[in-house]
Amino acid sequence: MNLVTPFEGIGASVKRKEDLRFLSGRGQYTDDINRPGQAYAFILRSPHAHARIAGIETAKAAAMPGVLAVYTSADLAGIGGLPCGWQIHNKDGTPMAEPKHPVLAEGKVRHVGDPVAVVIAETRARARDAAEAVLVDYEVLPAVASMAAAQAPGAPLVHEGVAGNLCYDWHIGDAAQVEAAFAKAAHRVVFETTNNRLVPNAMEPRCAVGDYDTATGEHTLYTTSQNPHVIRLLMGAFVLNIPEAKLRVVAPDVGGGFGSKIYHYAEEAIVTWAAAKLGRPVKWTADRSESFVSDAHGRDHVTRAELALDAEGRFLALKVSTQANMGAYLSTFAPCVPTYLYATLLAGVYTTPAIYAEVKAVFTNTVPVDAYRGAGRPEATFLLERLVDVAAKRCGFDRVELRRKNFISPDAFPYQTPVALQYDSGNYHATLDAALATADWAGFEARRAEAKARGRLRGIGISTYLEACGIAPSAVVGSLGARAGLYEVGTIRVHPTGSVTVLTGAHSHGQGHETTFAQLVADKLGVPIANVEVVHGDTAKVPFGMGTYGSRSLAVGGSAMDKAMDKIIAKGKKIAAHLMEASVEDIEFDRGTFRVAGTDKAKSLTEISLAAYVPHNYPIEELEPGLEETAFYDPKNFTYPGGCHIAEVEIEPETGRVHLVNFTAVDDVGRVINPMIVEGQVQGGVAQGVGQALLEGCVYDADGQLLSGSMLDYTMPRADDLAPVSVATHTTLCTHNPLGVKGCGEVGAIGSPPAVINAVVDALRDWGVEHIEMPATPQKIWSIIHGKSC
Amino acid sequence: MYDFAYHKPATLADAVKLLAADPDAKAVSGGHTLIPALKLRLNKPSALVDLSGIAEMKGIRREGGALVIGALTRHAEVAESAEVKAAIPALAYLAAHIGDVQVRNRGTLGGSVSNNDPAADYPAAVLGLGATVHTSKRKIAADDFFLGMFTTALEPDEILVAISFPIPEKAGYAKMKNPASRYVMAGAFVSKGPMGVRVAINGAGPCVFRQSAMEAALAAQWSPEAVAGIKQDADGLNSDIHGSAEYRAHLVTVMAKRAVAAAG
Ligand SMILES: Cc1cc2nc3c(=O)[nH]c(=O)nc-3n(C[C@H](O)[C@H](O)[C@H](O)COP(=O)(O)OP(=O)(O)OC[C@H]3O[C@@H](n4cnc5c(N)ncnc54)[C@H](O)[C@@H]3O)c2cc1C
Known about the structure:
The structure holds 2 protein chains of 2 kinds.
Chain A: H1 19-23, E1 39-45, E2 51-57, H2 59-62, E3 67-72, E4 108-109, E5 115-121, H3 124-131, E6 135-140, H4 147-151, E7 166-173, H5 175-183, E8 187-195, E9 207-213, E10 218-223, H6 228-240, E11 247-250, H7 266-278, E12 282-285, H8 288-294, E13 301-309, E14 315-327, E15 354-363, H9 377-395, H10 399-406, E16 415-416, E17 422-423, H11 428-438, H12 444-453, E18 457-466, H13 474-479, E19 488-494, E20 500-504, H14 513-525, E21 532-535, H15 553-579, E22 587-590, E23 593-596, E24 602-604, H16 605-613, E25 628-633, E26 642-652, E27 657-668, H17 675-695, E28 725-729, H18 747-763, H19 778-785
Parallel strand pairs in A: 1-12, 10-11, 14-15, 20-21, 27-28
Antiparallel strand pairs in A: 1-5, 2-4, 2-6, 3-5, 7-15, 8-13, 9-10, 9-12, 13-14, 16-17, 18-26, 19-20, 19-25, 22-23, 23-24, 26-27
Helix pairs in contact in A: 9-18, 14-15, 17-18
Chain B: E1 5-7, H1 12-21, E2 25-28, H2 34-39, E3 47-50, E4 60-63, E5 66-70, H3 75-80, H4 82-87, H5 89-96, H6 101-106, H7 109-115, H8 122-128, E6 132-135, E7 139-141, H9 142-145, E8 146-148, E9 151-152, E10 160-166, E11 170-177, E12 184-193, E13 196-202, E14 209-210, H10 212-220, H11 224-228, H12 245-263
Parallel strand pairs in B: 1-3, 2-3
Antiparallel strand pairs in B: 4-5, 5-10, 6-7, 6-10, 8-9, 11-12, 12-13, 13-14
The structure holds flavin-adenine dinucleotide (FAD).
Residues 26-34, 36, 51, 71, 98-99, 103, 106-108, 110-112, 114-115, 120-122, 154, 159-160, 182-183 of chain B line the site of flavin-adenine dinucleotide.
């Protein structure tokens, strides 16, 4: 047997291969790339939320030392706007408003940070010096910094021609059925909430380097992207008009994305265009202040929901009305986030038979908002899991039993929800029971009493959630407005002496693909992971790819690899049959060994690959030499991870400070390839969820100035804000992909915020508090305890 | 940052000369306040006068009933000093809770006190212990040193050389951190000793200040309960997205109570 030893295949907690270079400072990030003769771009951004540009004076800046060029939108004639990748239709069937998103502001700025001009110079400092000499004549206009302001009668328009600042007014579900159910309900529970706006803050700020080969006419863009092929497609086809064959996009090591690096940003087009125009490579690197006003933000919903229950507590119907902030322009995937990634999740883990949701997307004078870790599902989950707690309290049900009573039962799969999705598998009772046991839910009241003796208010909260990821079946998303397919591509290249290169269209920016994907190869082909190289992030190397977001890499990218490995095995069997003079039907393959069934005749994968590349004794008439296969995998359905999160908090009543003291996650992420990586992903996601629940709040003032515009005012979670996070998994297999995997990248951020807020509300039960908006800051808690308004 | 000249004098006299000769020059010690400001282009000095090579501004020593700490002493050195821990444990505690490890390894006592950020830690200890600030020109009592937000009695060419902290019988420090910046949102440094009973409040107002009602209460009875009922007036206190003036006023009482408890 050629079994990989020690076992490195599916289920092994192998240490991450990529960490040696990351932990020893030898990663290659975009900002580490410096091309010969490189110049530097500085982007001059709007200090105003809304202003007309009466004129821009660039001559003085252009004449400053070291300055190569100063460009404004007037120089970009013939260049397209930044495209939006998803079109939503209104209730009446008309398409959403889709105003132009110019690369550099055209006549008007619409948010603080909107790019106005670009200065390119020999050094970054020179470029920045010169940018201060660019004189922009702004006529400041009244701004709409919130959705309420944007929708007020007579509100200033972010885009002339977009009436009422309304991007779209969309709906899903059966309104009549919902009304009928409400009419016979024993209880109707109304709940209103705001899902707080977040700033993503990947550790690595965005960066882009444009390069142009005057000899070949080939453009290269190095960029901090989660999906280089998507950037090539969008920028090449819609913005700069460069054919794919002349445009290479490289996303090398990327230091975190969380969604914010999916989108095609203006700076990518600027450096690519300017490099060709100047014949010099051009680099732009954001500083943290710039990231705050130029990376797409996340969340920002205002919602009113109403749940109908019968006398026993069974959910009869749910009605939801949400406003979603789009910011000043449509970022690449913004329109789909509060619709198909949100409202389709409103059944959650419950059998609610009738659901109707309407969503209004609103333009405001703020940074564009798009998908951020979880994208739509955290918003849906927070709404549902708070609503269930509120319903339990108001109607007198136990919050755990109310959930259990309404769970979709484990034998009800496949389960069709009233909001389009069909869940393939799950066992919500199992994850609930496991989490209750781990968190010692039953013993909580004793811990609460003990905390009280210490002067602390202790609370416990639960969230039983579900999400849809592994996006997505191309035909389905196409019918819903996506302007792209959402398959993934994998190539398996078995080299002559048996080592393997994997080319994947997924992109790793913290997820550990170089390890997990190698484990898939180890498991199936029996090649030690040390001999498997995973290549990603370069359109010149990888055939194609849609990239990494929506917890899709393993479910879609891994499945493509699996299909490609099937092709390798099928071809290998033919070669083995030839070499061992047996019929192909008699060849069996198991982890690296081709065997003639019922005999001791066997050939290793290495012998087969050598024969494939040195085809002296080879079925050359019927088979090409070489051992390399590519597969495109288009998923048949979304995948549906779910589970139960339980948070326990203690509040200092004197200061209002909330301390997370315990967190339990039991998640069903399908088959687990590397338990250690899953644990890390869940812990990171929980950290972000705790951040949203307790700490992070993006605040604009009424004039559209970003008050939380730096780390001095925007509260990122730190190690001492967190508690030990106990992570366990309970697996039901995905039924429609070959690996049985569901995805684990976002579950932590999706399931945790309502668990934390439910715990905070529980801690304050003596105050009769029903809801606390995120983030639950010390001041907010203090004002509740002390009866103050804040 | 903008271009600037850089000087590294070896003596205090040379440093003073450089600063006196150029009104746009600025001293730099740990650089953990000044350099970020330069990076954000909020400050445009013509030259930086790096004080870090000046021997007479270094060291921690006991002089009679006081601890004299050189202006260049880094927060981590104060936190770890056996001398400080023995004489004024509350001061070592305060230093150990400034910022994070990187900040404590660079930031200096002199830089922090000269800067007088309303949300900084050290000014509370200087005022709360009734310390004396030694400069290149004179000695200034703490009560006369802190003049307002980011403003002190230091003249532009005057360098903070050392601070002399009278050793108290008891002292304690407690603060509520701003959740984002982790600077002080409201803090209290309390002491009882040769300088009397002192309560210095930082973070809450535009400048560190003494809370006289609490001082009187503690002089009468040194216990957390003595200050628990004393309310701080919210008028004139800072207010931002993390804490209103009213919330800060409330925190002042809580922190004073905790500081007295910590002092024992
Ligand atoms: C991330 C971060 C977190 C922080 N958190 C905290 C915190 O929680 N609490 C806190 O108190 N501080 C905090 N700080 C500030 C830190 O303590 C600073 O180092 C300190 O305030 C200034 O000391 P410095 O030596 O770095 O001064 P520098 O930055 O070198 O100088 C600051 C100012 O003082 C002047 N100056 C410096 N030395 C002298 C001198 N000897 N005489 C006259 N003028 C002088 C300079 O010209 C400048 O104007 C933080 C800083 C950072 C970067």
